[in-house]
Amino acid sequence: MTCNEIENRLPAYLEDLLSPKERKSMEGHLASCPRCSLVLADLKKAEELVRGLGEVEPPPFFEQRIMSRVREEAGQKQGILRRLFYPLYIKVPVQVLATFLVAVLAFYVYQKGEPEMKQMVPFPIPLTEHGKGQVTSESPKALAVPFAATTAKRAPAGDLPDKSQQRFVAPPFKSDGIESSIADSRAPIREERPTAMKSAAPAITARGKDIPPVKAEALSIARDRTGMQGADSASETLLMQQTRKEKIAVKRSAIDLTIQVRDAYAAIREIEERLGQFNARIIERQRLDGREILKAEIAAQNVAAFLDRLEAIGRVNVEKSPPGVPDGNVTVSIKIIGNP
Amino acid sequence: MPEIPDPVGAQNRNIGDDDAGFVARCQRGDTEAFSVLVRRHQKKMLNTAYRMIGDYDEACDVVQEAFLSAYRAIGKFRGDARFSTWLCGIVLNHARSHMTQKAARSRREAVSLDDPVKSKDESVMNEPRSQEESIVERIEKREIEAKVQECIGFLDGEQREVLVLRDIQGFTYEEIGVMLKLPEGTVKSRLFRARNALKSGLLRVFGDLK
């Protein structure tokens, strides 16, 4: 081995990592070569110097500084994890509950605001298909209110629930009872109409100054006009279509009257009985501002007789009446005012 | 970002480690257990970084960052090697990264003659002082240490690593191999070259080592 080779192998010799043969050869060379022996001595000294290097001490509060950074890191890590991996067994029920609460709140708000909307929107006219009592046209809210198909006799006023509005759809005309002969055919009705109106005229004039007189000339004009008025609204158009199916031409007019009674509930019952006697059909029943309002369809020739019967129940005040005697049916709106 | 040593790459055998309990607690989220590990290893890690970098303050910063990296990555530590070995690998990676950045910065910035020259003695202010040593002896020793440190700094980075880890910190060849991901034979040959290079450097500085 040359001196350079020996010099390169000296660190391994110092670590005692040479094979016995190599070690023996190395020791023989070192004994005979002062230069390589000097290199070995320098190597040992260098190693001593390195091993003798003193240790530096950490600065004061070094551990605290590191741990403050670590705790800060831990806090941030936890915050991120909480945001990203919020436990689903908590997160999902909370979201479901929140959705449910929002839905309930929205429904509650809708229900609270509904009466005001009803006051703003005009009352829909409920229409029925004759003979079936089914609704053909109605507002969405009205569908939610249970309907009760009833006659005047079947719906006593005392059984009404205390609601702001209640509508009844009465069945179609029936040809039984005392007045069945009147309602059965159209020809006898037309023949008897002048008689009926004649009997109605003195009754109306007897009620007071504010009752408009019915004139014979206006009656014929009104007969022509009622058809046009009825076609104005869509609901009446639908009704016209239904009546066409039955091949009965129905012409309508309206009478608004107020009746002042002592006991409103008893009066309602009596009025419904009278309507039943005249085969009238109750279209609608409302309670508005503490007053009961009944709307009914009654044959035009029975109007006068019906008004006479009403006089026996209470004080009648006709607020609006058609200018003439209409054909077919007349819608009578009766406002019942209790006056104890 | 310095590389975190892969614990899976360590030798697959169970090693008795006093730190294992605290490491497990840290992995369960116990931050305070990590303070025990910091207390135990801060000095050794600081000395390793200091001998690698040669600047005390910079070494402190590097060790601080290394501990923080270790905390972040402790969940990946499987205990295949000692915790101290794994931690020292992190410190070495941070030290290497720091020196690379420092070298790049010094190449970019022109050194001004008006810059204040920092004494090397400032970096070893916290060395323990023996009561028996006289002031002259202490100054002599500090000068010698500064020169040795200077010579270590002249070594190639790879040689410096193995020299510091073996001759200063006393890690085994196996542990050094785990840290540097090198076979033992490579570690040894690199160490022997480092020792020869250091001897040559010391001879140039001191003139004579006797």
Account of the protein in words:
The complex is a heterodimer of chains A (340) and B (210). With 340 residues, chain A is of the alpha+beta class. Chain A has 3 domains: 3-51, no CATH class; 62-119, no CATH class; 127-338, no CATH class. Helices cover 53% and strands 16% of the residues of chain A. In chain A, the strands form 3 sheets. A 6-stranded mixed sheet of chain A has the order 4-7-8-10-6-9. A two-stranded antiparallel ribbon of chain A has the order 1-2. In chain A, strands 3-5 form a two-stranded parallel sheet. Chain B has 2 domains: 9-106, RNA polymerase sigma factor, region 2, helix turn helix motif (Rna Polymerase Sigma Factor, Chain: A), CATH 1.10.1740; 133-210, Arc Repressor Mutant, subunit A (Orthogonal Bundle), CATH 1.10.10. In chain B, 66% of the residues lie in helices and 0% in strands. Chain B is an all-alpha fold. Chain B is globular, with a radius of gyration of 19 Å. The interface between A and B is large, with 34 and 46 residues.
Determine Rg of chain A (CA atoms, Å).
52 Å
The backbone outline of chain B, from C-alpha atoms, is globular
Main β-sheet, spatial strand arrangement of chain A: 4-7-8-10-6-9
Helix content of chain B: 55-70%
Class of secondary structure makeup of chain A: alpha+beta
Radius of gyration of chain B: 19 Å
Number of helical elements of chain A: 12
CATH architecture of the largest domain in chain B: Orthogonal Bundle
CATH top level of the largest domain in chain B is: Mainly Alpha
Order of helices and strands of chain A: HHHHHEEHEEEHHHHEHEEHEE
Mean pLDDT of chain B: 83
Oligomer: heterodimer
What's the short story on this structure?
The complex is a heterodimer of chains A (340) and B (210). Chain A has twelve helices and ten strands. By secondary structure, chain A is of the alpha+beta class.
